Amino acid sequence: MLGPLQPLVDMVTSPLFLMIALFPGLTSIAIIGALLGWLERKVTARVQLRIGPLYASPAGGILQMFADLIKLSFKELFVPENSDAFFFIMAPTTGLVIGAALVGLIPFAPGLQIANIEVGLPAFLAIITLSPSLVLLAGWSANSKFPFIGGLRALFQQTAYEIPLWLSALGVIMMAGTLNLAQIVAAQSTGWFIIPQALGAFIFLVTSVAEMERLPFDLPEAESEIMMGWQAEYPGVLFLAAQGPGFVKLYAFSALFTTIYLGGFLGPSLLPPLFWMLSKTLVVIVLIMLLRSTFPRVRLDQLLRAGWTTLLTLAIVNIGITYLLVVGLPTF
Amino acid sequence: MTDLLFLAFAAVTIGAAILAIEARDLVYGAAALGIAFLGVAGLFFLLDAAYVGWFQIAVYIGAVVVLILFTVMLVGPRMGEAPLGLKRVSLLAAILVSLLLGMTGALANATAFPGQDSCGSGCDLYLLSTSLLKNYGVQLEFVSLVMAAAVIGALALSKTDRGQ
Amino acid sequence: MEPLSSFFAVSVILLGIGIYGLMTKRNAIRILFSVELIYNAANLNIIAFARLRNPPIATGQVLVLFTIALAAMEAAVGLSIIILVSRLNAEIDLSKLSKLKG
Hints:
The complex is a heterotrimer. By secondary structure, chain A is mainly α. Chain A is 64% helix and 0% strand. The longest helix of chain A has 29 residues, at 300-328. Chain A is globular, with a radius of gyration of 21 Å. Chain B is mainly α. Chain B has two domains: 1-78, Four Helix Bundle (Hemerythrin (Met), subunit A) (Up-down Bundle), CATH 1.20.120.1200; 126-164. Chain B has helices at residues 2-22, 26-46, 50-75, 87-107, 125-135, 137-163. Chain B is globular. In chain B, 33% of the residues are buried. Chain C is mainly alpha-helical. In chain C, 73% of the residues lie in helices and 0% in strands. Chain C has helices at residues 4-24, 28-49, 59-89. The longest helix of chain C has 31 residues, at 59-89. The termini of chain C are far apart. The chains are: A mainly alpha, B mainly alpha, C mainly alpha. Chains in contact: A-B, B-C. Chains B and C meet through helix 1, helix 2, helix 3, helix 4 and helix 5 of B and helix 1, helix 2 and helix 3 of C.
Protein backbone atom coordinates (compact mmCIF):
# COMPACT_ATOMS: atom_id res chain seq x y z
CA MET A 1 0.00 0.00 0.00
CA LEU A 2 2.74 2.42 0.84
CA GLY A 3 4.81 1.49 -2.20
CA PRO A 4 8.19 3.23 -2.21
CA LEU A 5 7.95 4.06 1.47
CA GLN A 6 7.69 0.41 2.47
CA PRO A 7 11.43 -0.19 3.17
CA LEU A 8 11.52 2.92 5.30
CA VAL A 9 8.51 1.79 7.31
CA ASP A 10 10.08 -1.65 7.70
CA MET A 11 13.23 -0.10 9.04
CA VAL A 12 11.43 2.18 11.48
CA THR A 13 9.31 -0.61 12.92
CA SER A 14 12.14 -3.13 13.13
CA PRO A 15 13.00 -4.17 16.69
CA LEU A 16 16.55 -2.86 16.47
CA PHE A 17 15.40 0.62 15.51
CA LEU A 18 12.81 0.64 18.28
CA MET A 19 15.46 -0.44 20.74
CA ILE A 20 17.79 2.32 19.64
CA ALA A 21 15.12 5.01 19.61
CA LEU A 22 13.06 4.09 22.65
CA PHE A 23 14.44 1.60 25.14
CA PRO A 24 17.21 1.04 26.09
CA GLY A 25 18.20 3.67 23.58
CA LEU A 26 18.14 7.37 23.15
CA THR A 27 14.79 8.43 24.55
CA SER A 28 15.12 6.37 27.70
CA ILE A 29 18.70 7.55 28.21
CA ALA A 30 17.55 11.16 28.06
CA ILE A 31 14.66 10.61 30.45
CA ILE A 32 16.71 8.49 32.85
CA GLY A 33 19.50 11.06 32.80
CA ALA A 34 17.05 13.76 33.83
CA LEU A 35 15.49 11.55 36.49
CA LEU A 36 18.92 10.73 37.90
CA GLY A 37 19.59 14.43 38.32
CA TRP A 38 16.38 14.72 40.34
CA LEU A 39 17.21 11.57 42.30
CA GLU A 40 20.62 12.90 43.24
CA ARG A 41 19.16 16.10 44.60
CA LYS A 42 16.53 14.19 46.55
CA VAL A 43 18.98 11.69 48.03
CA THR A 44 21.52 14.29 49.10
CA ALA A 45 18.71 16.43 50.46
CA ARG A 46 17.31 13.65 52.61
CA VAL A 47 20.78 12.87 53.97
CA GLN A 48 21.14 16.50 54.93
CA LEU A 49 17.69 16.45 56.58
CA ARG A 50 16.19 18.65 53.88
CA ILE A 51 13.40 17.87 51.48
CA GLY A 52 14.91 18.79 48.13
CA PRO A 53 12.92 19.62 45.02
CA LEU A 54 9.27 19.70 45.95
CA TYR A 55 7.22 22.14 44.00
CA ALA A 56 7.75 21.19 40.39
CA SER A 57 4.97 18.63 40.34
CA PRO A 58 2.53 16.96 42.71
CA ALA A 59 4.79 13.91 43.10
CA GLY A 60 7.76 15.25 45.04
CA GLY A 61 9.20 17.56 42.45
CA ILE A 62 9.95 14.83 39.91
CA LEU A 63 9.63 17.23 37.00
CA GLN A 64 12.27 19.52 38.44
CA MET A 65 14.93 18.60 35.89
CA PHE A 66 12.57 19.21 33.01
CA ALA A 67 11.80 22.62 34.47
CA ASP A 68 15.55 23.25 34.62
CA LEU A 69 15.85 22.21 31.01
CA ILE A 70 13.21 24.70 29.96
CA LYS A 71 14.92 27.42 31.98
CA LEU A 72 18.32 26.66 30.44
CA SER A 73 16.87 26.74 26.94
CA PHE A 74 15.88 30.33 27.41
CA LYS A 75 19.28 31.48 28.57
CA GLU A 76 21.62 33.26 26.24
CA LEU A 77 23.86 30.85 24.41
CA PHE A 78 27.25 32.41 23.85
CA VAL A 79 30.71 31.17 23.15
CA PRO A 80 33.54 33.04 24.89
CA GLU A 81 35.34 35.29 22.47
CA ASN A 82 38.89 33.97 22.59
CA SER A 83 37.87 30.40 22.92
CA ASP A 84 38.08 27.69 20.34
CA ALA A 85 34.46 27.41 19.31
CA PHE A 86 34.73 24.08 17.53
CA PHE A 87 36.08 22.11 20.46
CA PHE A 88 34.09 24.15 22.95
CA ILE A 89 30.87 22.83 21.45
CA MET A 90 31.99 19.46 20.10
CA ALA A 91 33.82 18.07 23.12
CA PRO A 92 30.87 17.77 25.54
CA THR A 93 28.55 16.76 22.71
CA THR A 94 30.87 13.89 21.85
CA GLY A 95 30.81 13.00 25.54
CA LEU A 96 27.06 12.55 25.28
CA VAL A 97 27.54 10.31 22.23
CA ILE A 98 30.03 8.21 24.19
CA GLY A 99 27.61 7.86 27.09
CA ALA A 100 24.85 6.69 24.76
CA ALA A 101 27.23 4.19 23.12
CA LEU A 102 28.05 2.77 26.54
CA VAL A 103 24.40 2.10 27.35
CA GLY A 104 23.97 0.39 24.00
CA LEU A 105 26.34 -2.41 24.97
CA ILE A 106 24.54 -3.55 28.10
CA PRO A 107 22.04 -6.43 28.18
CA PHE A 108 18.93 -5.26 29.96
CA ALA A 109 16.98 -8.46 29.41
CA PRO A 110 17.49 -11.53 27.27
CA GLY A 111 17.23 -10.07 23.78
CA LEU A 112 17.01 -6.44 24.92
CA GLN A 113 20.54 -5.46 24.04
CA ILE A 114 21.31 -3.04 21.25
CA ALA A 115 24.76 -4.37 20.42
CA ASN A 116 25.48 -7.96 21.31
CA ILE A 117 29.09 -8.12 20.22
CA GLU A 118 31.52 -10.87 21.03
CA VAL A 119 33.97 -8.55 22.80
CA GLY A 120 31.42 -6.54 24.77
CA LEU A 121 33.35 -5.94 27.99
CA PRO A 122 36.61 -4.67 26.40
CA ALA A 123 34.47 -2.56 24.06
CA PHE A 124 32.81 -0.83 27.01
CA LEU A 125 36.15 -0.19 28.70
CA ALA A 126 37.73 0.99 25.44
CA ILE A 127 34.97 3.57 24.94
CA ILE A 128 35.62 4.83 28.46
CA THR A 129 39.23 5.55 27.51
CA LEU A 130 37.97 8.13 25.03
CA SER A 131 36.66 10.45 27.70
CA PRO A 132 39.90 11.89 29.19
CA SER A 133 40.89 13.46 25.88
CA LEU A 134 37.44 15.00 25.47
CA VAL A 135 37.58 16.57 28.91
CA LEU A 136 41.07 17.90 28.20
CA LEU A 137 39.86 19.45 24.94
CA ALA A 138 36.84 20.98 26.64
CA GLY A 139 38.99 22.48 29.37
CA TRP A 140 41.59 23.80 26.92
CA SER A 141 39.12 25.23 24.46
CA ALA A 142 37.62 27.67 26.96
CA ASN A 143 40.93 29.56 26.93
CA SER A 144 40.74 30.43 30.61
CA LYS A 145 42.77 29.34 33.59
CA PHE A 146 40.18 27.61 35.76
CA PRO A 147 38.74 25.39 33.07
CA PHE A 148 42.21 24.44 31.84
CA ILE A 149 43.41 23.43 35.30
CA GLY A 150 40.19 21.51 35.78
CA GLY A 151 40.68 19.78 32.45
CA LEU A 152 44.25 18.77 33.33
CA ARG A 153 43.16 17.43 36.71
CA ALA A 154 40.37 15.47 35.07
CA LEU A 155 42.86 14.05 32.58
CA PHE A 156 45.28 12.91 35.30
CA GLN A 157 42.51 11.42 37.38
CA GLN A 158 40.74 9.54 34.62
CA THR A 159 43.96 8.22 33.10
CA ALA A 160 45.25 7.00 36.44
CA TYR A 161 42.10 5.02 37.22
CA GLU A 162 41.73 3.30 33.86
CA ILE A 163 44.24 0.58 34.68
CA PRO A 164 42.65 -0.66 37.92
CA LEU A 165 39.31 -0.59 36.05
CA TRP A 166 40.60 -2.91 33.33
CA LEU A 167 42.36 -5.19 35.82
CA SER A 168 39.34 -5.62 38.07
CA ALA A 169 37.20 -6.45 35.04
CA LEU A 170 39.87 -9.02 34.13
CA GLY A 171 38.92 -10.96 37.28
CA VAL A 172 35.35 -11.26 36.01
CA ILE A 173 36.57 -12.36 32.58
CA MET A 174 38.69 -15.08 34.15
CA MET A 175 35.74 -16.40 36.12
CA ALA A 176 33.24 -16.25 33.27
CA GLY A 177 35.56 -17.41 30.51
CA THR A 178 34.01 -15.07 27.95
CA LEU A 179 34.11 -11.44 26.88
CA ASN A 180 30.48 -11.30 25.81
CA LEU A 181 28.30 -9.42 28.31
CA ALA A 182 25.21 -11.56 27.74
CA GLN A 183 27.24 -14.71 28.36
CA ILE A 184 28.79 -13.19 31.49
CA VAL A 185 25.26 -12.73 32.82
CA ALA A 186 24.42 -16.31 31.89
CA ALA A 187 27.57 -17.56 33.65
CA GLN A 188 26.28 -16.07 36.90
CA SER A 189 23.25 -18.32 37.04
CA THR A 190 25.07 -20.50 39.57
CA GLY A 191 26.08 -17.58 41.75
CA TRP A 192 26.64 -13.89 41.38
CA PHE A 193 30.25 -12.90 40.82
CA ILE A 194 30.23 -10.37 43.63
CA ILE A 195 30.85 -13.10 46.20
CA PRO A 196 34.08 -14.61 44.87
CA GLN A 197 35.10 -11.26 43.38
CA ALA A 198 34.44 -9.10 46.43
CA LEU A 199 37.81 -7.35 46.19
CA GLY A 200 37.41 -6.86 42.46
CA ALA A 201 33.92 -5.45 42.86
CA PHE A 202 35.17 -2.99 45.45
CA ILE A 203 38.00 -1.87 43.16
CA PHE A 204 35.62 -1.60 40.21
CA LEU A 205 33.19 0.52 42.22
CA VAL A 206 35.89 2.88 43.48
CA THR A 207 37.52 3.29 40.07
CA SER A 208 34.22 3.86 38.29
CA VAL A 209 33.32 6.59 40.80
CA ALA A 210 36.72 8.12 40.02
CA GLU A 211 36.16 7.80 36.27
CA MET A 212 32.82 9.56 36.56
CA GLU A 213 34.37 12.34 38.61
CA ARG A 214 31.82 12.15 41.34
CA LEU A 215 32.52 12.94 44.94
CA PRO A 216 34.69 11.97 46.66
CA PHE A 217 36.76 12.25 43.48
CA ASP A 218 35.32 15.39 41.96
CA LEU A 219 38.40 17.55 42.18
CA PRO A 220 38.19 18.54 38.50
CA GLU A 221 34.87 20.23 39.08
CA ALA A 222 35.38 21.19 42.67
CA GLU A 223 32.77 23.80 43.18
CA SER A 224 34.36 25.47 46.14
CA GLU A 225 37.88 25.47 44.80
CA ILE A 226 38.12 26.15 41.10
CA MET A 227 34.67 27.32 40.20
CA MET A 228 33.28 24.23 38.52
CA GLY A 229 36.60 23.46 36.81
CA TRP A 230 36.39 22.63 33.15
CA GLN A 231 32.66 23.26 33.07
CA ALA A 232 32.98 26.82 34.28
CA GLU A 233 32.49 28.56 30.94
CA TYR A 234 29.55 26.61 29.60
CA PRO A 235 26.35 28.69 29.27
CA GLY A 236 22.75 27.75 28.78
CA VAL A 237 21.97 24.52 27.04
CA LEU A 238 25.65 23.69 26.69
CA PHE A 239 25.72 23.40 30.48
CA LEU A 240 23.44 20.42 30.07
CA ALA A 241 25.85 19.05 27.49
CA ALA A 242 28.59 19.36 30.08
CA GLN A 243 26.58 17.88 32.96
CA GLY A 244 24.64 15.31 30.98
CA PRO A 245 27.47 12.86 30.29
CA GLY A 246 28.05 12.63 34.04
CA PHE A 247 24.60 11.23 34.66
CA VAL A 248 24.59 9.04 31.57
CA LYS A 249 27.94 7.58 32.61
CA LEU A 250 26.52 6.98 36.10
CA TYR A 251 23.68 5.03 34.54
CA ALA A 252 26.03 3.11 32.22
CA PHE A 253 28.60 2.26 34.90
CA SER A 254 25.94 1.14 37.37
CA ALA A 255 24.33 -1.02 34.71
CA LEU A 256 27.73 -2.55 33.89
CA PHE A 257 28.44 -3.19 37.56
CA THR A 258 25.09 -4.92 37.84
CA THR A 259 25.78 -6.96 34.73
CA ILE A 260 29.19 -8.26 35.66
CA TYR A 261 28.93 -8.54 39.43
CA LEU A 262 25.28 -8.69 40.44
CA GLY A 263 23.92 -11.08 37.86
CA GLY A 264 22.32 -8.59 35.51
CA PHE A 265 18.77 -9.52 34.68
CA LEU A 266 18.82 -12.84 36.55
CA GLY A 267 16.32 -13.23 39.31
CA PRO A 268 13.35 -15.30 40.45
CA SER A 269 11.04 -15.61 37.50
CA LEU A 270 7.95 -14.26 39.16
CA LEU A 271 8.96 -10.80 37.95
CA PRO A 272 10.24 -9.94 34.45
CA PRO A 273 14.03 -9.84 34.01
CA LEU A 274 13.92 -6.18 33.05
CA PHE A 275 12.52 -5.36 36.48
CA TRP A 276 15.40 -7.15 38.21
CA MET A 277 17.97 -5.41 36.03
CA LEU A 278 16.55 -1.95 36.66
CA SER A 279 16.07 -2.43 40.37
CA LYS A 280 19.61 -3.73 40.89
CA THR A 281 20.95 -0.82 38.83
CA LEU A 282 18.91 1.56 40.97
CA VAL A 283 20.42 0.11 44.15
CA VAL A 284 23.93 0.65 42.80
CA ILE A 285 23.07 4.19 41.68
CA VAL A 286 21.69 5.13 45.09
CA LEU A 287 24.79 3.62 46.72
CA ILE A 288 27.04 5.77 44.57
CA MET A 289 24.93 8.83 45.33
CA LEU A 290 25.19 8.15 49.04
CA LEU A 291 28.98 8.15 48.68
CA ARG A 292 28.69 11.81 47.73
CA SER A 293 27.18 12.72 51.10
CA THR A 294 29.48 10.54 53.12
CA PHE A 295 33.09 11.14 52.19
CA PRO A 296 35.16 14.31 52.01
CA ARG A 297 36.85 15.31 48.80
CA VAL A 298 40.15 13.57 48.08
CA ARG A 299 43.18 15.75 47.36
CA LEU A 300 44.79 15.42 43.96
CA ASP A 301 48.08 13.86 45.02
CA GLN A 302 46.31 11.44 47.37
CA LEU A 303 43.97 10.57 44.54
CA LEU A 304 46.71 9.89 42.01
CA ARG A 305 48.81 7.98 44.51
CA ALA A 306 45.83 5.80 45.42
CA GLY A 307 45.13 5.08 41.76
CA TRP A 308 48.65 4.27 40.66
CA THR A 309 49.85 2.33 43.71
CA THR A 310 47.18 1.11 46.10
CA LEU A 311 44.40 0.20 43.71
CA LEU A 312 46.77 -1.23 41.12
CA THR A 313 48.33 -3.54 43.73
CA LEU A 314 44.92 -4.59 45.01
CA ALA A 315 43.77 -5.34 41.49
CA ILE A 316 46.78 -7.56 40.86
CA VAL A 317 46.13 -9.33 44.18
CA ASN A 318 42.56 -9.85 43.00
CA ILE A 319 43.81 -11.44 39.80
CA GLY A 320 45.95 -13.80 41.87
CA ILE A 321 42.99 -14.75 44.07
CA THR A 322 40.81 -15.30 41.00
CA TYR A 323 43.47 -17.49 39.43
CA LEU A 324 43.51 -19.65 42.55
CA LEU A 325 39.73 -19.88 42.51
CA VAL A 326 39.43 -20.70 38.84
CA VAL A 327 42.38 -23.02 38.39
CA GLY A 328 43.29 -24.15 41.88
CA LEU A 329 39.97 -25.14 43.38
CA PRO A 330 38.76 -27.52 40.69
CA THR A 331 42.00 -29.48 40.94
CA PHE A 332 41.44 -30.24 44.61
CA MET B 1 26.01 -2.42 2.96
CA THR B 2 29.59 -3.34 3.72
CA ASP B 3 30.63 -1.55 0.55
CA LEU B 4 29.10 1.65 1.81
CA LEU B 5 30.67 1.18 5.22
CA PHE B 6 34.07 0.52 3.65
CA LEU B 7 33.84 3.66 1.52
CA ALA B 8 32.79 5.73 4.51
CA PHE B 9 35.58 4.46 6.76
CA ALA B 10 38.20 4.76 4.02
CA ALA B 11 37.15 8.31 3.14
CA VAL B 12 37.13 9.36 6.80
CA THR B 13 40.55 7.82 7.40
CA ILE B 14 42.24 9.38 4.40
CA GLY B 15 40.57 12.76 4.86
CA ALA B 16 41.47 12.91 8.53
CA ALA B 17 45.06 11.84 7.79
CA ILE B 18 45.47 14.67 5.28
CA LEU B 19 43.91 17.08 7.77
CA ALA B 20 46.26 15.89 10.50
CA ILE B 21 49.30 16.66 8.40
CA GLU B 22 48.11 19.92 6.92
CA ALA B 23 46.21 21.59 9.77
CA ARG B 24 47.89 24.73 10.95
CA ASP B 25 46.98 24.32 14.60
CA LEU B 26 48.50 21.22 16.20
CA VAL B 27 45.49 20.57 18.44
CA TYR B 28 43.25 20.29 15.37
CA GLY B 29 45.88 18.01 13.86
CA ALA B 30 45.84 15.78 16.93
CA ALA B 31 42.04 15.59 16.91
CA ALA B 32 42.09 14.76 13.19
CA LEU B 33 44.68 12.06 13.90
CA GLY B 34 42.26 10.61 16.46
CA ILE B 35 39.54 10.51 13.81
CA ALA B 36 41.95 8.78 11.42
CA PHE B 37 42.65 6.14 14.07
CA LEU B 38 38.92 5.67 14.49
CA GLY B 39 38.60 5.12 10.74
CA VAL B 40 41.37 2.51 10.80
CA ALA B 41 39.61 0.79 13.71
CA GLY B 42 36.44 0.71 11.63
CA LEU B 43 38.38 -0.93 8.80
CA PHE B 44 39.64 -3.51 11.30
CA PHE B 45 36.03 -4.27 12.25
CA LEU B 46 35.19 -4.79 8.59
CA LEU B 47 38.06 -7.29 8.37
CA ASP B 48 36.62 -9.42 11.21
CA ALA B 49 39.36 -8.32 13.64
CA ALA B 50 37.01 -7.03 16.34
CA TYR B 51 39.32 -7.40 19.32
CA VAL B 52 42.21 -5.73 17.52
CA GLY B 53 39.88 -2.88 16.54
CA TRP B 54 38.84 -2.21 20.14
CA PHE B 55 42.47 -2.52 21.21
CA GLN B 56 43.39 0.08 18.62
CA ILE B 57 40.69 2.41 19.94
CA ALA B 58 41.73 1.95 23.55
CA VAL B 59 45.48 2.31 22.97
CA TYR B 60 45.80 4.74 20.08
CA ILE B 61 42.86 7.08 20.64
CA GLY B 62 42.65 6.53 24.38
CA ALA B 63 46.35 6.93 25.13
CA VAL B 64 48.47 8.18 22.24
CA VAL B 65 46.10 11.01 21.28
CA VAL B 66 45.89 12.04 24.94
CA LEU B 67 49.70 12.09 25.15
CA ILE B 68 49.95 14.15 21.98
CA LEU B 69 47.32 16.64 23.14
CA PHE B 70 49.00 16.98 26.48
CA THR B 71 52.40 17.55 24.85
CA VAL B 72 51.03 20.10 22.42
CA MET B 73 49.42 22.05 25.24
CA LEU B 74 52.60 21.89 27.35
CA VAL B 75 55.00 22.83 24.58
CA GLY B 76 52.84 25.83 23.86
CA PRO B 77 51.51 27.45 20.76
CA ARG B 78 54.10 27.50 18.03
CA MET B 79 53.73 29.28 14.80
CA GLY B 80 52.34 27.29 11.95
CA GLU B 81 54.72 25.74 9.47
CA ALA B 82 56.96 28.32 7.85
CA PRO B 83 56.53 28.42 4.09
CA LEU B 84 58.69 25.75 2.52
CA GLY B 85 61.70 26.87 0.65
CA LEU B 86 62.69 23.29 0.09
CA LYS B 87 61.38 22.77 -3.39
CA ARG B 88 63.56 19.78 -3.98
CA VAL B 89 62.28 17.90 -0.99
CA SER B 90 58.67 18.42 -1.90
CA LEU B 91 59.37 17.39 -5.48
CA LEU B 92 60.95 14.21 -4.17
CA ALA B 93 58.00 13.66 -1.89
CA ALA B 94 55.53 14.13 -4.72
CA ILE B 95 57.43 11.63 -6.89
CA LEU B 96 57.49 9.12 -4.07
CA VAL B 97 53.80 9.47 -3.38
CA SER B 98 52.86 9.12 -7.02
CA LEU B 99 55.07 6.01 -7.24
CA LEU B 100 53.24 4.53 -4.32
CA LEU B 101 49.85 5.32 -5.78
CA GLY B 102 50.89 3.88 -9.10
CA MET B 103 51.94 0.70 -7.39
CA THR B 104 48.54 0.61 -5.77
CA GLY B 105 46.79 0.87 -9.07
CA ALA B 106 48.94 -1.80 -10.66
CA LEU B 107 48.50 -4.26 -7.85
CA ALA B 108 44.83 -3.55 -7.19
CA ASN B 109 44.07 -6.39 -9.46
CA ALA B 110 42.15 -9.45 -8.38
CA THR B 111 44.74 -11.85 -9.75
CA ALA B 112 47.49 -10.32 -7.63
CA PHE B 113 46.17 -11.96 -4.49
CA PRO B 114 45.77 -15.67 -4.94
CA GLY B 115 44.10 -17.67 -2.29
CA GLN B 116 40.70 -17.61 -0.75
CA ASP B 117 39.75 -14.39 0.92
CA SER B 118 37.57 -15.61 3.70
CA CYS B 119 38.08 -16.08 7.35
CA GLY B 120 35.97 -19.19 7.65
CA SER B 121 34.55 -20.37 10.91
CA GLY B 122 37.81 -20.67 12.79
CA CYS B 123 38.90 -17.07 12.55
CA ASP B 124 37.50 -15.83 15.82
CA LEU B 125 38.41 -14.69 19.29
CA TYR B 126 39.19 -18.21 20.53
CA LEU B 127 41.84 -18.66 17.85
CA LEU B 128 43.38 -15.29 18.60
CA SER B 129 43.57 -15.81 22.35
CA THR B 130 44.90 -19.37 22.28
CA SER B 131 47.61 -18.56 19.77
CA LEU B 132 48.50 -15.35 21.65
CA LEU B 133 49.02 -17.19 24.90
CA LYS B 134 50.23 -20.57 23.68
CA ASN B 135 52.26 -19.93 20.55
CA TYR B 136 53.42 -16.41 21.27
CA GLY B 137 53.58 -16.41 25.05
CA VAL B 138 57.31 -15.80 25.19
CA GLN B 139 57.06 -12.89 22.76
CA LEU B 140 54.26 -11.46 24.89
CA GLU B 141 56.53 -11.45 27.91
CA PHE B 142 59.29 -9.78 25.93
CA VAL B 143 56.89 -7.08 24.73
CA SER B 144 55.85 -6.38 28.32
CA LEU B 145 59.52 -6.09 29.32
CA VAL B 146 60.06 -3.60 26.50
CA MET B 147 57.03 -1.65 27.70
CA ALA B 148 58.38 -1.58 31.24
CA ALA B 149 61.71 -0.31 29.90
CA ALA B 150 59.92 2.41 27.94
CA VAL B 151 57.98 3.55 31.00
CA ILE B 152 61.12 3.64 33.12
CA GLY B 153 62.91 5.51 30.36
CA ALA B 154 60.20 8.14 30.06
CA LEU B 155 60.17 8.61 33.84
CA ALA B 156 63.97 8.91 33.90
CA LEU B 157 63.85 11.52 31.14
CA SER B 158 61.42 13.66 33.07
CA LYS B 159 63.41 13.28 36.27
CA THR B 160 66.69 14.63 34.92
CA ASP B 161 64.89 17.81 33.99
CA ARG B 162 63.86 18.54 37.54
CA GLY B 163 67.30 17.69 38.92
CA GLN B 164 68.80 20.81 37.39
CA MET C 1 32.86 -8.44 1.35
CA GLU C 2 35.09 -5.84 -0.13
CA PRO C 3 37.99 -7.26 -2.18
CA LEU C 4 41.30 -7.21 -0.37
CA SER C 5 42.92 -5.01 -2.97
CA SER C 6 40.85 -2.04 -1.85
CA PHE C 7 42.11 -2.41 1.73
CA PHE C 8 45.61 -2.59 0.30
CA ALA C 9 44.92 0.60 -1.64
CA VAL C 10 43.80 2.44 1.53
CA SER C 11 46.89 1.22 3.33
CA VAL C 12 49.20 2.43 0.58
CA ILE C 13 47.49 5.82 0.43
CA LEU C 14 47.95 6.21 4.19
CA LEU C 15 51.59 5.23 3.78
CA GLY C 16 51.99 7.85 1.07
CA ILE C 17 50.44 10.55 3.25
CA GLY C 18 52.69 9.53 6.14
CA ILE C 19 55.85 9.63 4.05
CA TYR C 20 54.86 12.98 2.56
CA GLY C 21 54.41 14.41 6.05
CA LEU C 22 57.68 12.90 7.22
CA MET C 23 59.63 14.45 4.40
CA THR C 24 58.13 17.89 4.12
CA LYS C 25 57.21 18.94 7.64
CA ARG C 26 59.67 20.31 10.15
CA ASN C 27 57.68 20.49 13.36
CA ALA C 28 58.68 17.55 15.54
CA ILE C 29 55.14 16.76 16.66
CA ARG C 30 53.86 16.78 13.11
CA ILE C 31 56.58 14.32 12.17
CA LEU C 32 55.33 12.13 14.99
CA PHE C 33 51.84 12.31 13.43
CA SER C 34 53.30 11.04 10.15
CA VAL C 35 55.10 8.19 11.87
CA GLU C 36 51.89 7.11 13.59
CA LEU C 37 50.08 7.18 10.25
CA ILE C 38 52.75 4.93 8.76
CA TYR C 39 52.31 2.52 11.68
CA ASN C 40 48.57 2.44 11.08
CA ALA C 41 49.02 1.81 7.37
CA ALA C 42 51.30 -1.15 8.12
CA ASN C 43 48.87 -2.57 10.71
CA LEU C 44 45.97 -2.31 8.29
CA ASN C 45 48.02 -4.12 5.67
CA ILE C 46 48.91 -6.95 8.04
CA ILE C 47 45.33 -7.46 9.17
CA ALA C 48 44.07 -7.43 5.59
CA PHE C 49 46.55 -10.02 4.40
CA ALA C 50 46.08 -12.20 7.48
CA ARG C 51 42.75 -13.28 6.06
CA LEU C 52 44.29 -15.11 3.14
CA ARG C 53 45.41 -18.20 5.07
CA ASN C 54 43.12 -21.19 4.93
CA PRO C 55 42.88 -22.84 7.50
CA PRO C 56 43.09 -19.53 9.35
CA ILE C 57 45.87 -18.67 11.75
CA ALA C 58 45.94 -15.74 14.12
CA THR C 59 49.55 -14.65 13.64
CA GLY C 60 48.60 -11.48 11.80
CA GLN C 61 46.32 -10.20 14.53
CA VAL C 62 48.80 -11.15 17.25
CA LEU C 63 51.53 -9.23 15.43
CA VAL C 64 49.29 -6.18 15.12
CA LEU C 65 48.49 -6.30 18.85
CA PHE C 66 52.22 -6.20 19.55
CA THR C 67 52.91 -3.39 17.09
CA ILE C 68 50.06 -1.24 18.43
CA ALA C 69 51.45 -1.53 21.94
CA LEU C 70 55.05 -0.89 20.86
CA ALA C 71 54.07 2.09 18.71
CA ALA C 72 52.26 3.63 21.68
CA MET C 73 55.37 3.17 23.81
CA GLU C 74 57.54 4.75 21.17
CA ALA C 75 55.18 7.70 20.93
CA ALA C 76 55.34 8.16 24.70
CA VAL C 77 59.13 8.19 24.81
CA GLY C 78 59.34 10.41 21.72
CA LEU C 79 56.93 12.92 23.21
CA SER C 80 58.86 13.14 26.45
CA ILE C 81 62.02 13.81 24.44
CA ILE C 82 60.17 16.55 22.54
CA ILE C 83 59.08 18.17 25.80
CA LEU C 84 62.65 18.12 27.11
CA VAL C 85 64.06 19.53 23.88
CA SER C 86 61.50 22.32 23.85
CA ARG C 87 62.43 23.22 27.40
CA LEU C 88 66.11 23.45 26.57
CA ASN C 89 65.97 25.06 23.15
CA ALA C 90 62.60 26.86 23.13
CA GLU C 91 61.71 25.50 19.72
CA ILE C 92 61.03 22.17 18.09
CA ASP C 93 61.82 22.91 14.47
CA LEU C 94 63.83 19.88 13.53
CA SER C 95 65.72 21.54 10.69
CA LYS C 96 67.28 23.93 13.19
CA LEU C 97 68.12 21.33 15.82
CA SER C 98 71.01 19.82 13.98
CA LYS C 99 73.69 20.16 16.66
CA LEU C 100 73.97 17.52 19.39
CA LYS C 101 74.20 20.06 22.12
CA GLY C 102 72.34 20.87 25.30
